[in-house]
Design brief:
Chain A is mainly α. Chain A has helices at about 5-35, 40, 55-65, 70-100, 105-115, 125-135, 140-165, 170-175, 180-210, 215, 225-230, 240-260, 265-270. In chain A, α1 packs across α12 and α5 (about 105-115) packs antiparallel against α7 (about 140-165). The model of chain A has no long low-confidence stretch (mean pLDDT about 85). Chain B is built from 13 helices and 2 strands; from the N terminus they run αββαααααααααααα. Chain B has a two-stranded antiparallel ribbon with strand order 1-2. In chain B, α3 crosses α10 (about 195-225). Chain B is globular and about 75 Å long. Classes of the chains: A mainly alpha, B mainly alpha. At the A-B interface, α1, α4, α5, α6 and α7 of A face α1, α3, α4, α5 and α6 of B.
């Protein structure tokens, strides 16, 4: 830094930034705190901040009453499955576009991006109908497929921008040394691409975990993931704040943790490489 | 240079992704177009034949169409203004030297990772509930009558909830852009005696223009499709029915597929207009 910052100015910045940060984070903090209260104290007037009878009871009740584990498992399978499937399809595509570009590569990439812009509600009924006809309604495999398809453009794009940063000379050198295409991808490209692939996986798990249009409209009791489980609390049952908070905390905790690791890649993934 | 062999291999490797996305795009699109020209009521007689452009006309002339467009524009516009203004200010603040910068950053972007149904429910019950919500407590503390947020002030409430979810996205992208700003330029301006506001207006803001455009376009595309927040909070009541939600109600709630599909075609056209602009910017970046 060329310019020295006065300690006074730094203190003001710090105080201001922390105040704003805590204000923005407050709804999440409040939800977590409320999840440890008993119901009567959760609606206490004035609200109790830290000095209440801490309890884990709500977590036990939520699990017992609504079978939280089943929804969690559905979320894991749907988010993980769609990401894995997407990766299998996207890695070869992104590889070929990054290393063997043709005149049409750019058009194909742009077209893939355009499919992401298709409003879900515009194709809701066709998908709904196809799901009924194919027996996929309220099935995990159905959601895996749909979420894989809606996130595929992002996966391809992210991988493409990462792959493009790998110098092509290295691949050519490997080819000169007689590496086959398969060896080239497996032993040369993959190790270099691991960080990029990892961020892609992370971002897509987050997006799939939080997806709340198809998961709400295409599931009922059997395949419902956590998004739908939480939505079921919008009934009068939602007035039990402590239990609602416990359920919410359990639904967002895994992704909050994953999200903190992926904050840098988030920008790149969500802007299709336009901002790095 | 790529050989003929690697070229055909490349084409083969691209094929699954291209075929899948092509199917994902074309099959539902053609079905939506097909249904939009039919009177189709699955629960009340099924397929009642072709009706030409009737659905397109009745969707636009129905009394809920213009209000839904208005609602959509207010939500998209309101959230964009709030997230951009606050986002720029926050990005500048977070770019300053301070203690615990990493932690503050995490606090600020956390809302983005909260699933929409959770943020909608938490805001609806624990903050905006007129009896037990935090805001009601706050209002009473100052001796005011608590507001019934989601019925009396439904639109501001929704805009607050959605802005809270999207502010981290705007902040993060603007912060990334601000960090690439050459600080020497700012210092030179400072030494020449340019006041803070002028430095912001003539150096920082122009530097951010591309990032701002990208935030506007990407958020618009996501905001046009806002669903869970409305589904969980008001269910489309109290004047919060957006175009997307109206189509959802026509299709799944009243099962008027023809009408809903015509609405869907309108939504697709609207989204495409925004998309064209976004794609131009992203495409330019691809050449660089």
């Amino acid at each position: 830094m060329a310019r020295a910052t006065t300690p006074r100015r730094k203190s003001i910045n710090t105080a201001l930034a922390w105040a704003v940060g805590l204000l923005i984070f407050f709804p999440i903090l409040w939800t977590i705190l409320t999840s440890f209260k008993i119901e009567a104290q959760a609606i206490n007037d004035p609200p109790l901040f830290l000095f209440f009878d801490w309890t884990l009871e709500n977590y036990a009740v939520v699990q017992e009453r609504s079978d939280y584990m089943r929804y969690l498992w559905n979320s894991i399978i749907i988010a993980g499955g769609s990401t894995l499937l997407g990766l299998i399809v996207a890695v070869p595509a992104a590889w070929s576009m990054a290393f063997v570009p043709s005149k049409r590569t750019k058009d194909i990439l742009m077209w893939m991006l355009s499919t992401k812009m298709l409003p879900a509600v515009g194709v809701l009924y066709p998908i709904y109908l196809l799901f009924i006809k194919l027996g996929l309604l309220d099935s995990r495999i159905g959601l895996v497929i749909v979420l894989m398809l809606i996130n595929l453009p992002i996966i391809v794009w992210m991988l493409y921008t990462y792959f493009r940063e790998i110098p092509g000379e290295i691949l050519e050198a490997a080819r000169m040394d007689g590496a086959t295409l398969k060896e080239e991808i497996l032993y040369v490209l993959t190790p270099m691409a691991v960080p990029g692939i990892a961020s892609t996986v992370l971002l897509n798990i987050i997006l799939a975990w939080n997806e709340a249009f198809w998961t709400l409209n295409l599931t009922a009791a059997k395949a419902a993931p956590l998004t739908a489980f939480i939505a079921s609390y919008s009934s009068p049952e939602g007035l039990f704040y402590a239990k609602l908070s416990a359920a919410s905390t359990m639904a967002i905790a895994p992704i909050l943790i994953l999200g903190w690791f992926s904050q840098k890649q988030l920008v790149r993934g969500l802007t299709f490489g336009a901002v790095k | 240079m790529a050989t003929q062999q690697s070229r055909s291999a490349a084409r083969l490797m691209m094929a699954p992704a291209v075929i899948l996305l092509l199917g994902w795009m074309l099959v539902p699109l053609i079905m939506t177009l097909y249904f939009s020209f039919k009177k189709y009521l699955p629960l009340r007689g099924g397929d009642l034949g072709w009706v030409g452009f009737d659905n397109y006309v009745s969707f636009v002339t129905s009394s809920s169409f213009w209000p839904s467009i208005q609602t959509t524009l207010i939500i998209v516009g309101g959230v964009l203004v709030i997230t951009l203004v606050l986002g720029v200010l926050l990005a500048i603040l977070l770019d300053q030297p301070m203690w615990g910068q990493g932690i503050v950053r995490i606090l600020v972007i956390a809302p983005f990772f909260v699933m929409p149904t959770v943020s909608a429910l938490v805001w609806k019950n624990m903050f905006m509930d007129p009896i037990n919500g935090i805001l009601a407590h706050l209002w009473r503390f100052f001796g005011a009558q608590p507001v019934e947020w989601l019925s009396q002030a439904s639109m501001p409430s929704l805009i607050i909830i959605i802005s809270w979810q999207w502010l981290p996205f705007a902040t993060l992208i603007l912060l990334t852009a601000i960090q690439s700003l050459d600080s020497e330029q700012l210092e030179a301006a400072e030494m020449d005696g340019a006041p803070v506001l002028k430095r912001f207006w003539f150096i920082t803001l122009p530097h951010l223009s591309r990032a701002i455009t990208i935030v506007i376009l990407i958020q618009t595309i996501f905001l046009l499709g806002i669903f869970a927040e409305i589904f969980v909070t008001t269910g489309g009541a109290f004047g919060t029915r957006t175009l997307s939600y109206l189509i959802f109600q026509r299709v799944l709630e009243s099962q008027n597929i023809g009408l809903g599909s015509a609405g869907g075609v309108y939504a697709i056209i609207l989204a495409n207009i925004v998309a064209i602009f976004l794609m131009r910017i992203v495409g330019k970046n691809l050449d660089a």
